[in-house]
Design brief:
single chain, 14 strands, globular, 535 residues, two-stranded antiparallel ribbon
Length: 535
């Protein structure tokens, strides 16, 4: 893969749920509160004392909403303007919260104003994960998914700091991205391939420093959480109403820890385990993706002869692992004169496991590889995951993803340490384990910023109840992390909900029970019973 599997990316799933972007005209909306009147804090000072106050020039901002242009989510953006329903603005935030009077960066926003079918509650901020997904580019693509919530909330998407329109990190051009995706072996087999793997990681890091060095020390989750509080104040809300998916659950939980008394209605869906260090996170994902693959293979086997991987999940996983080993030696020809490598094939499989809606496509792609000896369909799935368009241009999402996750972690593993994990990870998954073990060494290799961030603190005593949702078949943020997050938030704060289903994210799954439960919480303040299960 040219992008690691990290905390997951919900935006790609969103595009499956809406074939076109809604573009209805503006209607009369509910009255907005005057911005800049709510309290806001800055980050702690360098000496660990009271945080310096943010200047009135920041807290008193009034966003200048205007018609949106094409989103700035890609290196050579092919995005289109989202339509008349949507308005865009930029809010200035401190580059460094320890120096709130210093340089600023702009936080890009997009909103659809409340439709007025009920008393307006406030703004609902949404984060679609990654880390590094552009909310400005992603939110319009969700179509009608949030229409019921939009009746009483302004829907607000944003590009977190270091992402797309908010001083987005850029590390490479598309040509270099293509070369790494098509040639680099992300599961090196010998000393020469290990050397090339590490050299590429360090070259990527050097590119980030060269192109985006000023922002790299300031893109961590704590700073982004403080941006949320500034946005809350500027949008005129006394409390933050927030829906975070995948990495967005980490961001929301850090906010709750920093500002528990300002927590309004918060939902964390597809929860990243807050207790996991980098190695445990990789173990979790290895387990989660193998579990999702097993579930797919069991479903595929129920189709009988239609399943190219056979009738037994364990045998099917080994057959797929065998295909990857063959591709490591001899890539398959694919459309456009390209080749399907081992890394790209694995990426295509990963892409399809994010949602049950893609299982049929995965079956067709595997059948093509096994029976026709070509790799066009798996390559197309990999391109979708890697944000590569038909002209070979890549978005910068993976650059932001790496910058944020490396800013959040002090862990730096050597190739030797990763090599020692290979037997354990191969045992966890013959398909994904080896890649995720090697990734521990390559992801932040040579990173120019070293933080002492460690695991996030999420205790939020005194906060209003927060819904924490886990999906039993979630590949990228396995189900077990939701209970850990709910417990970590504190008794009476974390309300643990279970969706018995497949895919990455429950609210976007189309499950009527889960949608009803979440909507009742956001719209009517109804807190479900801890332990509620939807299936």
């Amino acid at each position: 893969m040219s992008r690691t599997v990290r905390a997951g990316a919900l935006a790609a799933v969103a595009l499956l749920l809406a074939a076109t972007t809604a573009a209805c005209g503006d209607k009369e909306k509910g009255k907005e509160s005057a911005p800049g009147k709510a309290a806001v804090s800055a980050s702690p000072g360098a000496d660990g004392g009271e945080p310096p106050a943010l200047p009135a020039a920041l807290t008193g901002q009034k966003p200048r909403w205007k018609e949106c242009g094409a989103p700035a989510a890609a290196l050579g953006s092919t995005g289109r303007a989202p339509g008349a329903r949507w308005q865009c603005a930029t809010v200035e935030a401190p580059l460094d919260y320890a120096d709130p009077d210093g340089d600023t960066l702009g936080i890009a926003l997009i909103r659809a104003r409340a439709t007025g079918r009920g008393e307006r509650i406030g703004s609902l901020l949404l984060n679609f994960g990654g880390p590094g997904n552009s909310g400005v580019a992603s939110l319009p693509g969700w179509g009608t998914v949030f229409d019921d919530l939009n009746s009483r909330y302004d829907l607000v998407g944003f590009d977190p700091r270091g992402v797309a329109g908010s001083s987005g990190v850029v590390c490479r051009d598309s040509e270099a991205m293509e070369a790494a995706a098509s040639r680099l072996d992300h599961t090196p087999d010998d000393a020469a391939e290990e050397k090339a793997f590490l050299a590429d990681a360090k070259d990527f890091a050097a590119g980030c420093e060269r192109r985006s060095g000023a922002v790299l020390p300031h893109v961590g989750t704590e700073s982004a959480a403080r941006d949320l509080d500034l946005l809350r104040a500027v949008l005129g809300d006394d409390k933050l109403h927030y829906l975070g998916f995948s990495y967005g659950t980490r961001l929301g939980a850090v906010y709750a820890h920093l500002f528990p008394r300002r927590v309004g209605r918060l939902v964390l869906d597809a929860v990243s385990d807050p207790s996991a260090d980098d190695v445990r996170h990789a173990r979790n994902q290895t387990t989660g993706f193998q579990r999702a693959l097993d579930n797919y293979l069991a479903d595929c086997a129920a189709q009988g002869a239609a399943c190219p991987a056979g009738g037994d999940p364990a045998a099917g996983a080994e057959k797929i692992a065998g295909l990857l080993r063959r591709l490591d030696r001899d890539p398959l020809p694919a459309s456009g004169g390209r080749e399907l490598t081992e890394s790209l094939a694995r990426t295509g499989i990963v892409r399809a496991l994010y949602t049950e809606q893609l299982w049929e496509q995965l079956t067709g792609a595997l059948r093509e590889a096994f029976e026709a000896g070509t790799g066009s369909r798996l390559l197309a799935l990999a391109d979708a995951y890697n944000d590569r368009d038909e002209n070979g241009r890549y978005s910068s999402q993976s650059h932001s993803q790496r910058a944020i996750s490396c800013a959040d972690s002090a862990d730096r593993m050597s190739l030797g340490e990763a090599r020692d994990l290979l037997p354990e990870f191969r045992e966890l998954s013959p398909v994904f384990g080896e890649f995720l073990a090697w990734d521990l060494a390559g992801w932040c290799a040579g990173w120019p910023v070293r933080e002492d961030a460690g695991r996030p603190e999420v205790s939020a005593e005194g906060a209003d109840p927060i819904l924490v949702i886990g999906t039993t078949g979630d590949p990228a943020t396995p189900y077990e992390g939701a209970k850990i997050m709910a417990d970590g938030l504190g008794e009476g704060v974390g309300i643990h909900l279970t969706y018995e289903g497949e895919g990455h994210g429950a609210y976007s799954s189309g499950n009527a029970c889960m949608k009803k439960t979440v909507d009742a919480y956001f719209l009517d303040g109804e807190v479900p019973e801890d332990g509620t299960t939807c299936s």
